[in-house]
Amino acid sequence: MKNFVTGANLKDAHCINANTGRDFNIDVYGDIRMAKDGDICPKCNGALRIYRGIEVGHVFKLGTKYSKSLKAVYLDDNGKEKFMVMGCYGIGVGRTVAASIEQNHDDNGIIWPVPIAPFQIMILPLNMKNSDVVKNSEDVYHMLIVSGIEVLLDDRDERPGIKFKDADLIGIPIQIIVGEKNLKEGKAEIKVRKDGRRVIIPVSDIKNEVVGLIKELMI
Ligand SMILES: [Zn+2]
User: Fold this and answer.
1) What is the distance in A from the centroid of ligand 1 to the CA of 89?
2) What are the phi and psi torsion angles at 152 (to 5°)?
3) Ligand 1 centre and the CA of 202: distance in Å?
4) Residue 49 Cα, ligand 1 centroid: separation in angstroms?
5) What is the 54 CA–ligand 1 centroid distance (Å)?
6) Contact indicator for 202, 190 with CB cutoff of 8 Å
7) Residues near ligand 1 ion, CB 5 Å cutoff
8) What residues does each domain of the chain span?
9) CA-to-CA dists, residue 56 to 62, 66, 88, 114, angstroms
């Protein structure tokens, strides 16, 4: 090439009429491109495999940068003072949440693992205009809260279909569905978000049932 254009190591600037030999010397000519899956390793002839990963945390080797300024020393085998070699690590809470959702979801939305779920239980009163449904939902809500269980109550005046869809979308592990029909027999439905398992049980058995389910899903 002759009189070509190069970068100028300055923002928004280029050099024109650059010529090798006069303006700079080239040490190495090479065929340079991005590595891709299946590329052969120059050392062992193995094939490079590329995977998607999520950076959940960092590890930094700080060396003696801070121990020198802090004068943090130790005595080695020969009784000589040496600067400590330091490292530190950090785990990002936001990244951990994103990573967990990426690993735990289906077409309908998030499936929170119980240990990190923002709530363990979600209660869905299917008809906010029915005072029996509302009262039973609120009673179950308070009873579970008092037992130290984290509960979310969907008390919006929405159609059941919307509540079901949103409950699956936000993925609280266990849903308690309180509807008129089951309530007439003193019962409510419990659904496990992870596998769609459903049981219809007496309202008075709800606490035992969900405590058992939380234990089971904790593993
Ligand atoms: Zn290799």
Assistant:
1) 28
2) -115, 130
3) 62
4) 11
5) 23
6) no
7) 41, 43-44, 46
8) 57-91, 110-218
9) 19, 25, 15, 19
Spacing, Cα 77 to ligand 1 middle (Å): 37
Which three-class secondary structure state does DSSP give residue 34? coil
**Positive/negative CA dihedral, 109, 112, 116, 119:** positive
Mapped onto helix, strand or coil, the DSSP state of residue 43 is coil
CA of 47 to the centre of ligand 1 (A): 8
Is the CATH number 3.40.50.800 carried by domain 110-218?
yes
Q: What are phi and psi of 87, to 5 degrees?
A: -140, 160
How many angstroms separate the CA atoms of 155 and 140, rounded?
13
pLDDT string in tens for the chain (219-residue length) = 899 999 999 999 999 999 999 998 989 988 888 999 999 998 999 999 999 888 888 899 999 999 999 999 999 999 999 999 999 988 888 888 888 999 999 999 999 999 999 999 999 999 999 999 999 999 999 999 999 999 999 999 999 999 999 999 999 999 999 999 999 999 999 999 999 999 999 999 999 999 999 999 997
d(CA 219, CA 199): 21
